[in-house]
Structures are given as structure tokens and as C-alpha cells.
What we know:
Helices cover 57% and strands 6% of the residues. By secondary structure, the protein is mainly alpha-helical. The chain is elongated.
Amino acid sequence: MKTILMLEDNDERIASFQKAVAGLAGGYDLKIWRDAHSMIAECAEFFPSAALICLDHDLNSQPGVKADPGTGLDAAIFLADFLPVCPVLIHSSNIDRVYSMHNEMRFAGWRVDRVGPLGADWIETTWLTRMRELLAEHGNTWKANLPPDHNERVARMQLSLDGLGLGDALGEMLSYQSANAAQRLNANELPAGPWFHTDDTEMAISIMAVLKSHGELNQDALARRFARRFERDPDRGYGSMTRIQLREINAGAKWQEMAAKAFGGQGSMGNGGAMRVGPLGAYFADDLARCADAARQSALVTHTHPEGVAGAIAIALGAAMTWQLRAVPATDFAPRFFGEILRLTPESKVGRGILLASQTPAGVPFQDVARLLGNGSLVTAPDTVPFCLWMAAHYPHGFVDVIGKTISVGGDCDTNAAIVGGMVALSAGRESIPNEWLEAREKNLL
């Protein structure tokens, strides 16, 4: 059965739409949402069968419902983050918003058209005629390969993202007083929320969204989400080169060309590929080879230098291993953790740093380990990844403690804490994350 997805709140219109769709040849099911938030929450599951998406803009709350129903523009913005699924037909008398919705979808590559609700029988005439044309001209283009345990994987990703986002926000807030971070976290001497995150979390959200929707790392979809999240909120601390790349992608450039051109053609060896990849490692935690390959693909969207790629692979594997070893005592954790990461991380300066980290005993003060391995001050993968892995290996079961210690060494505080938080949340478990921290962070991250 093919499905027509519709956002509409008017009972009379809904009855006319239902009658019109019932008369179509070929068998179509009409799925209707009366508010934008419900559509946003549920519509992706219908993408494989979607033949057409129809959007109104102005929505009224239903009887007895006090919540704001949102608008068609909210739905259009949400849909535009996806690769095109099927044609879109907008029907609204709000001309200004119609063009905003149209442009959101059109600039994202969707086939979109508009029908004005003019006349008493516009649904049976104008709308039905254009709908039939779109159905005849354009088919479903959605591609997804969701595994049987997809929901369990998504839950792991969410746990990693929670840890990553909190580490990021706390690292950013405490970076100017980093030496006292561990003391402040353990005493819960923290400012009131909301705690704002940086580009680390922004880009991790995009990775999670792509995997949640596609079941695999689709690079085109990831580049699109990176660029559009940047466009909507550019003041998140993005690096100068990343800002250039994402601006150009939004202007129509191909991500492959922009990534290859970075830093005079040598590509970026920054820690950006590593900082965002924890949720990916969580998703592929049961298949390390696929985890490494997906991490490589995720890095290449912005980081083509071998060191930048190696850093992303190593942290994704670190996240996978913290999940696999979550029940292993801390005394036995590090050898197995480092063994698999070293096996699958490509030969690189990052890899050599990880080898040194694996040979650095747990008894060495973590401040000395940071001086030995690097604390991210250079904002490169070799200067960031080995230390973060050492912290996850030797403090796997105490989320608050490891975040505080990680921030206290200074350097790239938010990125270090994001990387470590995205891994240790998986081994320490959700119960290790204070509920008040989760309440203090920004809302509606996805």
C-alpha cells in the first residue's frame, strides 16, 4: 500500500481529502496529522511507502488541547533535513509562509509544488489534478536499511549523545576555570540551566539523525544535515575551516570538493571527526569492522586528512568497546579496550599515540598523562584522541568523575569532555548521569 502523508487540521477539508484519495486508482492510504509536532515525531516511519506529502501551514489547537500545534513550516524544516522521499504538495492560503515552506523544501532538493485553496471545490479539482500529476511523474526515492535491532541501537546512540552533549556543555562552561572542574562537578556547584552546547553536539546530533533514519552512514544526508544545522544556528563555535566548508555546501558546492580542498588540499587533521562520532560507535557497537568503516565515511564528509580519519575511527571504536565491556571490572577493562582499537585504527600518528596510551599505566596521574599524550590544545586528532581514550579506559564506570577530571587538564575542554562523555556514558550507564544535569541542558536537541 502506498501512503499519502498529510498535515491538516480542518475537519471539512479532511473529509474532502479522504474522499478524493479513496477515488484514486492503485490503492493509497491517507495518513493525517493535525499538528506539526506529531507529524515530525512519526512521519519518518512512513517514508518507505510515501507517495506524496501534503502540507498546510496554519494550524489550530484541537478541542481540549492546550499545546501549540506548530505550523507547516516546522514540518517543512524537519523534512528538508532528509534526502528527498517523494514529491510535496503545499496547500495553504498563508502566501508568505507558503513561499518559506516551498523554499525550505526546494533548496533541500525536494520536488515541491503549491496549490491555493481557492473556490469551494478546490480539493476535488485543482488539488486532485495536481496530485495525480505528481504521483504519475515522481515515485518514492527513499532508501533505508534498518536492522532488526534498530530500536536498541538508537537507544544506545541516545545514551552516548546524552553523555557527549553534557560533556560538551560542561567543558564549555568550565573551560575558563578548568583546574577546579572536578571539584565543582563532584560538589554539584554548577550554574543553573540551560547549559548550551557547541558544534561538537550539533554535529553529533546530525550523525545520530542520519543513522536513525537510514540505518547506515549516508554521506550525502550527513553533509546536508551538517550544513543546514549550521545555517540555522552558526554561532556554536564552529572552526573557521568548517564554517567555510558548510557555507559553501549551503551555497551549492559538493561536500567532496570542499573537504578535499581544506588546508591547501591536504585535508583537515583536526579533532572534529572524532568529537562527534560517539553515537555512531554506539550504533555499530556489535560490529567493529562496520563501525570503523562507518566512522571513516563520517569523517570524510569534512576531514580527508588520514589523521583526521584515524581519530574518528579510533573514537567510534572506543565507544563501541565501552558498550561491549560495560560489565567488565575496571582492572580488566583497559587491555581489551585498547586491543581492539589498535587492531582497527589505521597506521598513523593517532595510532602511535594510542599505542603509547595503551602502555601508560593506570597509576600515572591523569594530569601527567595529558602532558604526555596531549590535551587537545592543538585541536588536532593526534593531540586529542589518545588522551581521551586513556581516560575512558581507566575511568569507565564513573561519569561525573571522568568528566570533571577530563575538563581539569585544560586544552580543548569541551571537545575532550564531549569525546570522553560519549564513550563513558555507554560503560557507566544512564544511572551514572545525574538527572539534574539532563534537566539543565538545552531542550529539543533533535
